[in-house]
Amino acid sequence: MRDLGAGFRYLLKGQRWVARHGRQYGFGLLPGLITLVLYAAALVALALWGEDAVGWATPFADDWTSPWQGLFRGFLTAVLFALALLLAVVTFTAVTLLIGQPFYENLSEKVDRDVSPDGHAPESGLPLWRELWISARDSLRIVVRAALWGVLLFACGFIPVVGQTAVPVIGFFITGFFLTEELTAVALQRRSVELRTRLTLLRSRKALVWGFGTPLAAAFLVPFVAVFLMPGAVAGATLMARDLLGEEIDEGGDGGEAGDQAATTFPQPPSGSPAPGR
């Protein structure tokens, strides 16, 4: 339970950090706004022409009598739109981070410098095109994992009682985990931490991850909220990345109480994981 509360505090402290650094917050909004416009256009197009697409994909139902044809195709259209919404929620962070890579890298570095006792921020030393390639590759792997979970949970949703109670709750926790992975990746990639090691770190502190990512996943269901929370989410995830790697957080910076705990009680990364920095 302590980790669960610490994760939520990191989320709040990230929002507080960007509120104190208005210029960074303003730049951090741009990628989210661009992604929101793209996703909104895609969902509107699906709402307008989704039924036609389902009709084209199910020619075998052309000769079905009423009302079975309408019910069948209406159900498939609803399923298609629901899957599109789920995919939009799961991939929104990945696409926004990819579009806003330079913005969020800069924001994350400033958070690191602000809370580091020596004012140092780890740097990858890689050219921008290489960082974009690594980010896109890892994001695709995470999206595939999340999509598989999404299909499984969607299927489980048809189980009576369980599908309407436990499945949505599990879905929020899973979505929160993957959102946290995407957000902490901004800081961890600068430290040359590979995807497999990042997942190991997150799994070792599931309560911390859920405390940060689950309420964020719920908030991200509202697109406009996702846009405005994204810069603070990146800032909070940077603080949490330092926690996961056992790096000290200056209690005089914006890390606050949770940062002080990180400096004294949080464990070191699992054996075999890369050391912070290069």
From TrEMBL:
Q: Which InterPro entries does the record match to this protein? A: CysZ-like, CysZ/EI24
Keywords of the record, alphabetical order, are: Amino-acid biosynthesis, Cell inner membrane, Cell membrane, Membrane, Sulfate transport, Transmembrane, Transmembrane helix, Transport
Bias category Pro residues: which stretches? 267-278
Looking at the UniProt entry, the stretches that span the membrane are: 25-50, 70-100, 142-163, 169-188, 208-230
Which membrane topology describes this protein?
Answer: Multi-pass membrane protein
Which GO MF terms are attached to this record? high-affinity sulfate:proton symporter activity
A GO cellular component annotation in the UniProt record? plasma membrane
* UniProt region (Disordered), positions on chain: 250-278
Subcellular location, record wording: Membrane
Which processes are annotated in GO (biological process)? cysteine biosynthetic process; sulfate assimilation
Keyword presence, Membrane: yes
Major subcellular location class = membrane
- Tell me the PANTHER family matching this sequence: SULFATE TRANSPORTER CYSZ
Protein's recorded name: Membrane protein
List the source organism: Streptomyces tuirus
